[in-house]
Queue: 4 jobs
Job 1
Amino acid sequence: WMTYEAGVRAARYHRKPLVAHIHATELDRTHFSPNQWIYDRERWGFEQADRIIAVSNYTKQILVSHYGIPAEKISVVHNGNNITRDIDPEAIHSEYRKNHPPMVLFLGRLTLQKGPHQFLEMASAVHGIRPDVEFVVAGDGGMLGELIDHSLQLGLQNNIMFAGKVSNDEAQKLFAQADCFVMPSLSEPFGLVALEAIAQGTPVIISKQSGVSEVIGHAFKVDFWDTAKMADCVLTLLREDPLAWQLRSEASRVLDRLTWEHQAMAVRSLYQQILHS
């Protein structure tokens, strides 16, 4: 939204069409309780654009339903990936499990949008049935203090670790060590972190309120508010080794076709259509 004014002016000056590529909205960031001024600027920018590219059908529906943008004005091109395996995740997972109990991972910014409180509620439900399971919250953000307090209130102090911000190498190792990764986002336009998880062979449980749920076929998909169902999915993966291994082997196949090169060609094709229309 900060660049829409400049984009509109540049398009008018050069007499060129304006394309807005939407990766997130104010509604995503605030769980649909927006700063009205920012929301109005976003809507104005969307209205001024000749074409909009959204990173998911989920985002497209938000633009149509909450910003009043005509559906025919919006094209969807999912995000891609260029993720490589710099480690042997199976070896790391096997070695980790020799000396550690099962581990469930959250990795993301500690903000309302990413659903860390939902992760803790899920963890509490799992803990009530499987007190041996450990939980790792990796990431930093303004909610860290209240999340630590919440975990204490839930009685998780002996089973949870707040790892703070981690490097890419550390994230890869955490994914490989984890028995499953949970992405409980309240509103996630895409969710590249889920692709990073499956690249390391980690079974994933992802919010239905996300774009990445449209492209990963072999995963558990749960409404972000249904923490009981989320916990049930975690317990199923911990109990059913054949299912977990099926998800480990099948989910990552999406990475072969969802490359940045392929997605960039789709964007380029849209630009060519716009220029010749």
Note: The domain at 89-254 is CATH 3.40.50.2000 (Rossmann fold).
Job 2
Amino acid sequence: MPPDRISSLGEKKLISRIISRSASFFRPSELLGLGDDAALLDMGNEYLALTSDLLIESRHFPPKMSHHDMGWKTVTVNMSDLAAMGAAPEGFILSMALPDLDLESFDSLISGVMEACSYYGAPLIGGDTNEGDEIIMAGTAIGRIRKDLVMMKSGARPGDLIAVTGPLGLGAAGTELLLSGTDTAGFEVAVEKSLKPIARVKEASRMAKSGLVSSATDITDGLISELGELRDASGVGMRIHEVKLPVPPQVSEAASVLGVDPLELALYYGEDFELVFTAPPDAMEELSRIMKVHIIGEVIESPSIEMVDKHGDTYKLHVRGYEHLRP
């Protein structure tokens, strides 16, 4: 019998496998945040939050993405993880493997990195360069958060409301349009969302400082996948309502052109870079007075992910989304 391959597990189970082995080598106090959006190092009254993401040109950068936007996205995906924890960005480290680019393309790539670092208030403070057959960008973001304000995937309780910070499906629609080679005229908002996403660092700061959020994560691998993360970490279930989902008309229009279900783009694809979070009803009402929130459902006791469709029927959703290391 041939040996099992990592593709039989996929990214999330592979990470769980690593985490389970870490417990044999390190004390629980040394593993704070492991399995969450960022690791946490105890710094007295604060945590130092650290996270890392790897982007590969052929897998993460859609056609027509400029070198500048590649650099921007490399920083943004890392800052989104800091945002999910409520951490304020402090610095960024970048390691790159590069083919023999012309200097204009290289300068454009680095310009995108620098502009994003400036936007998020996280200076580029180090890294490494090497040769590669294609562009590979490995970023590490460093942030700080007061211990009493950190947001984590655990903490949701039955009766809490579920909300997102912005529209769903635009990044997915833009990416799929670019991958299909379809004329993108009229879909500029979706394409912009795909090529130059914005991490919700400012919104996360308001959320963390309010102390009202019970759990949170960012939507990079699809809403249902991320709700599954909150469910597993909190030991609860999630119910969303189709009529409450903030899916812009442009997503439905793009889905029609692509021949796909708009809910597939909004629920499973990812690339939204919004935050999904939970809070008690009175806390959510208070949050809505200091920032834009879209309430999409509620936390339930049953450990399942459910959706109430537009006809009022309730059914369970299979937890899936974008995942690396799958065949």
Note: The chain has a mean pLDDT of 93.
Job 3
Amino acid sequence: MNNEPMINEELILKTIRQVLRENTELADALKTGCKESAAQEAEETDEGFTADIFSTPEQEHFLVDNPKNKEAYLRMKKRTLALLGLGKAGLSSRDKTETYLRKYAFLSAARDAVLQPVSKEFLDKLGMPVIKTMPDSVQEYLTQPYLSRLLDEENMEIVHTKLKKNPDVQILIGEGNSSIALEVGLTDFWSALKQGLESHGIDYGTPAFLRYPRLGSGDLIASEAGAKAVCMILGERTCMATCESMGVYITYNPRVGILENTRTVISGIYKDGTPYVEAGAYAADLIHRVLTEKKSGVELESGMELELSNSK
């Protein structure tokens, strides 16, 4: 006797029809969803390019899900450039995709600021003598800093023949750690600094552009020129907040081997820090004070603190 179960052909056909119908509905739903997604992407892009992830300023960028008080958080964010209110992906501690992309965009901009030199057009517009320290590449400049404190015979000849002798202050401009900072802010800063120096009657000699600069090479050049002080304007080390910040280092009686605590520094010169024009005017006043009191760095700051305490 055959014990195999009977095949119900009608049930099999019914099941097949149901599966085909469900697959057709799924295919239609997927097709509709793809069309809607494509339409949304088309609205968010321009001529096929992905929308700019920086179209929202960092101080307005907020990705926390279901915040208790979003308005208060945004008010707090406006007081800092720190990366706050980023949220997390799901229940994990991973960054959201947009945050991940923004962070890598910040890092890419920082890398470009350090590795890319200022353009030839920018140097031509400055119209200053160009002096180069010993490194032959950015990589050598970053990995062998002692070379940046030295000049070869050719560049030392530029110092001796093209720079004015015995100025009150020798102005030196260099990329430092951000060429972008110079290209963005130097024009406004230099205009204000020059106007301030002229109003104080300060002889700033022949300003020069220094390729692969270190503070030590500025001391060397200024001492060879016979300057009473040196003012170095450099691109500052970049960070997540900005790659457009400049720093100013003023040293009285510059010479090879001078201690670092003899330098007076202005840092954070950029649009969201100390504005370029304001910093240029302030630097001129500081140089005037350095020359008048014949000191800089810790000694100058101690005198300023003493004046403030006596005025209270």
Note: The longest strand covers residues 229-235.
Job 4
Amino acid sequence: MAIHKILFPTKFRELSFDALSALLELKEAGLEEVVLLHVIEREQVGFVPYGGYLKEEEERLRDIARLKFEEWQQFLERKGIKSKFHILVGNPVPKILAVAEEDNVDLIVAGRKKRQALERYIGSSMLDLLQRSKKPVLVFKYMCYDIEKGREFCVVNQQLCEHLLLATDFSESSERAFRFLENFKGPAKKITLLHVVSEDLGKPALEKEASEAKAKLSEFSQKLQQKGFTSQYYVHIGKPVQEILKISQEYGTNMVLMGTTGKGRWRALWLGSVSQRVAEFSHLPVLLVP
């Protein structure tokens, strides 16, 4: 599946436009169209105590969103990218999923800003989206640094696709994530493959899994090299989440790719234990393939 069309939901927060600009790197991966989406949450226009509805407020919010989207469309047109936009009222996650299906997008991009060292990137709405989406989701990251008392400096991740890390457990969704890598042949210069063997295994089982993983990763790496990628692979022993986060930083990768289901586990459980936690705590963008 190529990345021809992406869905970019936005609340017009700080750096949203910067994130959209950074995503244009995907043009080398075949990006042709961006679907822009703004969801006005019902609480913003519902007058709950009296059961009324603030129609004028809805129109005001629609006008603001329309003006911003028209400006963004002009920018995308100058970059040779087609675009369209939707302004809807309701619950954001169901609306995002519905538009993704109706417009048949190839990728959903959901951004989140991190302000504090221990703050997570994944909130309840993001987790709901990850658990329910049938489309790949790119969790884009905004980093904020305190530079002086009372001030902060925020940036978006750049060079999105130059060095990709695929963390795999060899499940079906990990196999799909591996195939999804082919979409990045243009912008990706290097791909690192990683499998983490749980340190909780006994020595015989640990050695057996490590040996089998090396053989599989070697085969994957050869396939990537045949397609023109520069590839390397590693098998590490430890706790999967911690090892993935550590390797993604130490090896200078720009984005982490993972499947969203694991062997022998139902989807939400695996999301809660591995891929969700990587998406929560990684400073890098994380692309999850269902």
Note: The radius of gyration is 20 Å.
